[in-house]
């Protein structure tokens, strides 16, 4: 969330600059915004009326470029390179960082091979350097690099600009999350009730066993009274007969 | 004096000071009390030394009405405006002969504490007991030259199960006119507990070590689950707020705010929180281990019960039991 705070002043700065300009000077502002090392959010600039006006003119390529930076990835840029203006090296770097963010949208565990393909990087060392220096130190992603399994586990990724349709899916995800947590709450309550019920049953069982023990003690003390009056009772005789079997 | 002692602790403070007490002070006072109590009653195998130690300890400690010794000490902290925050405390030696606290020791300790905590001042003193006593006013007055209005923290060491709040009271001194004579009496003040993160963690840790009423495994489980339940409930309500907000944004009731949407999308990307294969493996392994261990414990329990039963039967139905021509029935 701090990446958002860092970006806020830059966004305001560029929005102020862009709202007063037009035409070619607007193009320079757009280029500045794209190359700025800490700016990753472009939808505010995109929504400015001056910028949308550029759509039909000869500078519409820059609008497309801005949209590419807002929503697209490096491979999309490559496939469309003919229609879009060429990128300066820091702009290319920016686009690659944004690509990582997009990839992190769908999977939490990004395999190195996929990353290398998407980012046009040839070896693992370069990929790791890129991830560490350009993504983690800047603060747009946080995660763990697992070299043995050759994957990058993402724990946190900054948000990219939302395409118009994505809001619906976000709401859907949120409502799923809500229903899951509701179910979980109900399950926990049931478990608590179960635990209480079990402990009640256990206590009852113990009490019954103790009562039986007391009763047995009482009846036996009565019996020992009758026994002491002389002679063995019938049970005692039977015990004597079957005790050899038992002790075996 | 008799009527003064009755009205001594009934009034409530009107000075308007707010008191904040840190748990460290309460733990210190109770620790001091417990130490003194256990040192004056050595374990039974040294009972022949007990007479010496008990006689020496009774001469240096005042014995309160309920028989346990009173302990004394000093509280230090910060006073900012109308808020008095009591951070720490240390022990003092009490001289029953002069009914006062050891002044030289207090000053030495104060100097030492000043070096480590330059902001802390002596705010008052503490003691244990059920209620404030007459003699306490003397000590209170003696401290008034260090701090013009000291506070008196009293901890009641008797455990009262029905009492729900802490047995700690804070008294201030006020000049009241009783029977035409202006006198200094103790008045109660209310206080709040204020914790630093470290204090909160340690108190939490101690509280979870042993359930408060020694409940069975079921109550411990229920307590643990209740904790989790309330945590998830809070998470649930917060997500509901976000959900509502996004819905409103979609319906157009609220202007679209991009930075917030970005943050929400980054939050949603953290879900599912744990799903990798490795987690499943570790989780199942630990689950199986726990089940195995409880199974094994159950087995051991059963076999020991069985052993006892066999012993009892052997004793009960021994072949060789011809004493007096009668078998033992039980």
TrEMBL record, chain A:
Keywords: Coiled coil, Proteasome. Residues 1-159 form the PCI domain. GO terms for cellular component: COP9 signalosome; proteasome complex. It holds the Pfam family CSN7_HB_subdom. It comes from the Eukaryota. Transmembrane segments: none annotated. Residues 195-226 form a coiled coil. Belongs to the CSN7/EIF3M family. CSN7 subfamily. PANTHER family: COMPLEX SUBUNIT 7A, PUTATIVE-RELATED, COP9 SIGNALOSOME COMPLEX SUBUNIT 7/DENDRITIC CELL PROTEIN GA17. This is Proteasome component (PCI) domain protein. It comes from Artemisia annua (Sweet wormwood).
UniProtKB/TrEMBL annotation, chain B:
Keywords: Cytoplasm, Nucleus, Signalosome. Component of the COP9 signalosome complex (CSN), a complex involved in various cellular and developmental processes such as photomorphogenesis and auxin and jasmonate responses. The CSN complex is an essential regulator of the ubiquitin (Ubl) conjugation pathway by mediating the deneddylation of the cullin subunits of SCF-type E3 ligase complexes, leading to decrease the Ubl ligase activity of SCF. It is involved in repression of photomorphogenesis in darkness by regulating the activity of COP1-containing Ubl ligase complexes. The keyword Nuclease does not apply. Belongs to the peptidase M67A family. CSN6 subfamily. InterPro entries: EIF3F/CSN6-like_C, JAMM/MPN+_dom, MPN, MPN_CSN6. One of its GO terms (biological process) is COP9 signalosome assembly. It comes from the Eukaryota. The keyword Protein transport does not apply. It comes from Artemisia annua. One of its GO terms (molecular function) is metallopeptidase activity. Residues 49-177 form the MPN domain. This is COP9 signalosome complex subunit 6. Residues 33-62 are annotated as: Disordered. Its main location: cytoplasm. It is found in: Cytoplasm; Nucleus. One of its GO terms (cellular component) is cytoplasm.
């Amino acid at each position: 969330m701090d990446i958002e705070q860092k970006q806020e002043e830059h966004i305001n700065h560029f929005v102020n600059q862009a709202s007063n300009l037009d035409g070619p000077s607007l193009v320079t502002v757009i280029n500045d915004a794209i190359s700025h090392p800490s700016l990753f959010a472009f939808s505010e600039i995109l929504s400015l009326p001056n910028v949308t006006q550029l759509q039909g003119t000869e500078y519409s390529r820059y609008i497309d470029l801005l949209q590419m930076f807002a929503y697209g990835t490096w491979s999309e840029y490559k496939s469309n390179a003919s229609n879009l203006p060429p990128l300066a090296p820091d702009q290319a770097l920016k686009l690659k960082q944004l690509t990582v963010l997009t990839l992190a949208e769908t999977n939490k565990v990004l395999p190195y091979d996929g990353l290398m393909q998407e980012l046009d990087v040839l070896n693992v060392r370069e990929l790791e350097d890129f991830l560490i220096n350009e993504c983690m130190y800047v603060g747009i992603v946080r995660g763990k690099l697992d070299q043995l399994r050759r994957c990058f586990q993402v724990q946190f990724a900054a948000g990219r600009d939302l395409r118009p349709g994505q809001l619906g899916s976000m709401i859907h995800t949120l409502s799923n999350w809500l229903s899951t947590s509701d179910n979980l709450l109900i399950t926990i309550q049931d478990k608590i009730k179960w635990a209480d019920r079990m402990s009640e049953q256990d206590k009852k069982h113990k009490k019954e066993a103790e009562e039986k023990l007391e009763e047995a003690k009482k009846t036996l003390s009565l019996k020992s009274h009758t026994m002491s009056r002389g002679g063995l009772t019938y049970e005692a005789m039977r015990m004597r007969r079957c005790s050899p079997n038992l002790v075996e | 004096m008799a009527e003064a002692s009755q009205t001594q602790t009934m009034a409530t403070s009107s000075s308007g000071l707010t008191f904040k007490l840190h748990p460290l002070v309460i733990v210190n006072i109770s620790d001091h009390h417990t130490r003194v109590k256990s040192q004056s009653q050595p374990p039974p195998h040294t009972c022949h030394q007990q007479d010496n130690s008990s006689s020496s300890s009774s001469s240096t400690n005042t014995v309160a009405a309920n028989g346990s010794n009173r302990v004394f000490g000093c509280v230090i902290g910060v006073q900012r405006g109308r808020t008095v925050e009591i951070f720490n405390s240390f022990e003092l030696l009490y001289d029953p002969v002069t009914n006062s606290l050891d002044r030289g020791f207090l000053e030495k300790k104060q100097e030492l504490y000043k070096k480590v905590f330059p902001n802390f001042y002596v705010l008052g003193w503490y003691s244990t007991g059920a209620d404030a006593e007459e003699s306490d006013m003397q000590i209170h007055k003696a401290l008034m030259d260090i701090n013009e209005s000291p506070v008196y923290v009293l901890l009641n060491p008797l455990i009262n199960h029905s009492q729900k709040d802490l047995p700690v009271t804070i008294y201030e001194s006020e000049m009241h006119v009783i029977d035409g004579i202006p006198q200094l009496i103790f008045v109660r003040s209310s206080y709040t507990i204020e914790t630093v993160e470290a204090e909160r963690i340690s108190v939490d840790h101690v509280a979870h070590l042993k359930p408060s009423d020694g409940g069975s495994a079921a109550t411990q489980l229920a307590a643990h689950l209740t904790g989790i339940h309330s945590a998830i409930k809070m998470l649930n309500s917060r997500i509901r707020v976000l959900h509502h907000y996004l819905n409103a944004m979609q319906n157009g009731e609220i202007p679209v705010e991009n930075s917030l949407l970005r943050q929400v999308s980054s939050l949603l990307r953290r879900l599912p929180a744990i799903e990798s294969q490795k987690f499943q493996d570790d989780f199942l392994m630990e689950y199986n281990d726990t089940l195995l261990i409880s199974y094994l414990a159950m087995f051991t329990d059963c076999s020991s019960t069985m052993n006892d039963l066999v012993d009892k039967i052997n004793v009960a139905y021994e072949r060789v039991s011809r004493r007096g021509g009668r078998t033992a029935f039980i």
